[in-house]
Write a structure and sequence with these properties.
The complex is a heterodimer of chains A (about 200) and B (about 575). Chain A is mainly alpha-helical. Chain A contains six helices and six strands. Chain B is mostly helical. Helices cover about 60% and strands about 5% of the residues of chain B. Chain B is built from 17 helices and five strands. In chain B, α12 packs parallel to α15 and α13 crosses α14. Classes of the chains: A mainly alpha (about 200), B mainly alpha (about 575).
Chain lengths: ~200, ~575
């Protein structure tokens, strides 16, 4: 019985491999590169024609003048986009509580006057270690600090946050978020424009 | 729970149920060999495959022949994926110069993808070349799904046919599933996902300059970020549709390049349940009693929906240890709140929990959040859904044939209660069917419990455990539940890329798949040979709400009783520790 199935098994495996493993990914790539070229190649953001990041991949910020993102647990460097990873820390693991406390202390030290409670997504690790977003609450929490250190009004900073925030899809699906890298890029370019005015 | 959580859950459920009928009819037409709309183009390809492969589509096989063809085809798949990984350093399309994969890991990956499990003890972007991902894994995503669906169709023929010696042609079922169902759906969905930002390119990884340089583990300054890319959209589309679940990148659909927006997330999570739900309708349509299909879908939903709301509830409740630290875990219009450790901001609590429940109810196993970081009870639900035997939706094909095995058990028990010969869809259920169905129900729990027991007493395996205390036990139990039921998701803290785990979990996946597939084909063969008994006064109606409840109870009692002691040692004791410390 094996002999009679041998040829169908081998040849059909080969043909299905060509169709689903070569022709299918190639045709998806072809269509994608024509219709959505920029997105298919990683949604890169350019500054002065140099790639400065991806709209979809977060970067690490701990300078108080920038907005901070989610905690990243990738190794060997945080936000390592060549090796995505979550923390995998369980809820009862003391390492988790310690990491959260360290982050709280850093946030408090950077902005001692801010006594409001800290939004949970700002003190926890993302699943990918590459989360480009924070919640609106996490962004609003940081506005007083960033505005003070950059000598900007809170209204100005808030308008930048709003500009780079995304609502739920159709107002229903997903969560409203702010793109941290985009806001920080705006903050930097605002500085240069401001200096040129003087 | 807030109103938005409820609405998002309802939108998801409604979409899945509404799509079940149209896709179900389409698939039934494909399997009945009727024109289904795509024949003009694909019919040519189909006939061309038959001619070159020496397949005679009119020949029907005995159940043993069918099983032999299936095993042979799957064996070739395992061998080819193994060889591709070992040799990838010498093969083209390897822009990042990935070296050959170690033998134990290569064995694990090959079995994992052929058995529709897609357990991943490796990170895609750090281990595999583009060629291995495409020609090895993407192909298995298609054909392992098609294998499951082919076996289901063979079983359905067992109910339809009268006194027949054969159950259909494996090659035809395999080829038609791939060409007419999986390929067109994947094409459309892949393009939609790219439109959202899922990458699809053959370029090497991209280097970008960081806005703020960052220190690495040794304190050295790093100026650049390397962005892993690849032909991801084409692979992750079929990973969702075929209930495979193997991600292109390490963190699977939590990775922004696999799942960048709420819309991409919605499309992917609907794709997870799309075919398993629609196959229920296909079943009813093909046995010419649509109520029988709705009954099975209803039984699945009755288990699924409470699990969904519970998981959202526990995760939204957050981590009690954080309350005294000045952290705000409340859901508001400005933040999702809840247990955000291991979750992405754009998905929040509700979309992470919907995914976790869908991917474990179906034997998909892809993730968009890290299950290891769930609250004890929030993480218990995905684990328990796997342990129920992957019959609540389950894998494409395999979920429904698993559920039908439970139906056979249920009608047998009911038949004993009312003192009649048990029947289902006009076919008498006798000793042979009961033996085979019992095997199917006993093998996965045996693999899970024995595997877990061996893993916790085997010397030097404890170093693989990441989280201390009962949570560490949960990691091991989850790993064997996942492999022993062909799910593929993980409590990812467990370092499973060791010879022990690669081989033990590889064997569990192999037996969980084929030791169930072969008995179900035996049932198909035995049922085919039987006459159809006309409905009479003694027939137990299997289309009533009463039968739905009865079936659900059988599934729950078997699942709950088998795993309760193990679950007590893991998540349940952890829950009490968390709330009383």
């Amino acid at each position: 019985m094996i002999r009679e199935h041998m040829r169908p098994a081998i040849v059909s495996f080969l043909l299905l491999t060509i169709i689903t493993g070569i022709l299918y990914p190639l045709s998806v790539t072809g269509i994608a590169q024509v219709l959505f070229r920029e997105r298919a190649n990683g949604s890169l953001i350019y500054r002065d024609e140099n790639p400065i990041g991806s709209l979809l991949i977060g970067q690490h910020f701990d300078d108080p003048k920038y907005f901070w993102g989610r905690i990243s647990s990738t190794s060997s460097v945080r936000f390592n986009a060549a090796s995505s990873s979550g923390s995998n820390l369980g809820p009862t693991n003391s390492v988790l509580t310690d990491a959260v406390k360290v982050r709280i202390e850093a946030l408090r030290a950077a902005d001692p006057d801010n006594t409001s409670t800290i939004p949970v997504d700002l003190v926890t690790s993302s699943a990918s270690g590459l989360d480009p977003h924070i919640s609106l609450a996490a962004a609003y929490y940081q506005i007083p600090r960033v505005a003070r250190l950059r000598g900007l009004s809170q209204e100005t900073v808030k308008s930048m946050v709003r500009k780079h925030s995304y609502n739920r899809f159709l107002g229903l699906i997903g969560e409203p978020v702010v793109n941290v890298l985009k806001v920080n890029l705006d903050l930097d370019s605002y500085k240069t424009e401001y200096n040129m005015d003087i | 729970m807030n109103w938005n959580n409820v609405i998002q859950g309802l939108i998801f459920l409604t979409t899945v149920v509404l799509l079940a009928k149209p896709l179900g009819i389409y698939m039934a037409r494909v399997y009945e060999g009727k024109p289904a709309g795509l024949n003009v183009l694909l019919g040519l390809v189909e006939r061309w495959i038959y001619r070159l492969s020496g397949i005679y589509p009119e020949t029907s096989m005995s159940w043993k022949g069918y099983a032999m063809a299936m095993m042979l085809f799957n064996g070739i798949g395992i061998a080819v994926v193994y060889a591709l990984q070992r040799l990838q350093a010498y093969l083209p399309l390897n822009p990042m110069s990935m070296p050959g994969v170690a033998p134990d890991l290569a064995f694990n990956i090959a079995v994992s993808f052929a058995t529709n499990t897609n357990w991943q003890s490796y990170g895609g972007e750090t281990t595999l070349s583009y060629l291995t991902q495409m020609v090895g894994l993407t192909v298995q995503n298609f054909v392992s799904a098609a294998t499951g669906m082919a076996i289901l169709v063979a079983l359905i023929r067992g109910f339809i046919q009268k006194q027949a010696e054969t159950i259909g042609n494996f090659w035809v079922d395999l080829v038609r599933t791939t060409l007419y169902i999986l390929l067109p759906l994947s094409m459309v969905l892949a393009i939609l996902l790219v439109s959202q930002g899922v990458v699809q390119t053959f370029k090497p990884y991209e280097k970008v300059t960081l806005l703020q340089p960052v220190k690495d583990g040794n304190g050295a300054e790093v100026q650049e970020q390397v962005l892993a890319l690849g032909p991801a959209a084409s692979q992750i589309t079929i990973k969702e549709l075929g209930t495979n679940g193997g991600g292109f990148f390490n963190v699977n659909s939590a990775h922004p390049f696999e799942n960048p927006t709420p819309l991409s997330n919605f499309l992917e999570v609907v794709a997870i349940l799309l075919i398993p739900a629609a196959l229920c309708y296909t079943f009813g349509y093909m046995v010419k009693d649509k109520r029988q299909g709705w009954v099975l879908l209803a039984a699945m939903l009755i288990i699924f929906i409470p699990c969904l709301w519970s998981c959202i509830y526990f995760e939204q409740h957050g981590n009690p240890l954080f309350n005294s630290l000045g952290i705000n875990q409340k859901a508001t219009a400005f933040q999702p709140g809840g247990n955000m450790e291991g979750k992405e901001a754009r998905f929040g609590i509700v979309n992470s929990a919907i995914w976790a429940v869908a991917t474990t109810a179906a034997s998909n196993g892809s993730v968009n959040s890290m299950h290891d970081s769930y609250t004890p009870l929030g993480g218990l639900i995905p684990m328990w859904l796997i342990q129920l035997g992957e019959v609540v939706f389950g894998g494409v094909g395999s979920g429904l044939y698993g559920m039908i095995a439970f139906v056979i058990i249920a009608v047998f028990i009911a038949g004993l209660m009312i003192g009649r010969t048990p029947e289902y869809l006009g076919k008498k259920i006798e000793t042979y069917e009961m033996k085979m169905a019992s095997l199917m129900i006993l093998i996965p729990p045996a693999l899970v419990l024995a595997g877990t027991a061996v893993a916790v007493i085997w010397p030097q395996t404890k170093v693989s455990i990441f989280n201390p205390g009962p949570h560490g036990f949960s990691e091991v139990l989850y790993a064997f539940s996942s492999a022993g039921n062909n799910n593929g998701s993980a409590f990812g803290g467990l370092s499973a890329n060791t010879p022990f785990y690669n081989i033990a979990l590889g064997l569990a996946m192999f037996f969980a798949r084929y030791w169930l597939a072969i008995p179900i084909l035996a049932i198909a063969g035995s049922l085919s040979r039987k006459k159809i008994v006309p409905v009479n006064q003694g027939t137990l109606p299997t289309h009533t709400p009463l039968f739905v409840v009865f079936l659900v109870m059988v599934v729950l009692i078997v699942g709950a009783l088998t795993f309760f002691p193990a679950l007590v040692l893991g998540p349940i004791v952890e829950h009490f520790i968390l709330h009383h410390s």
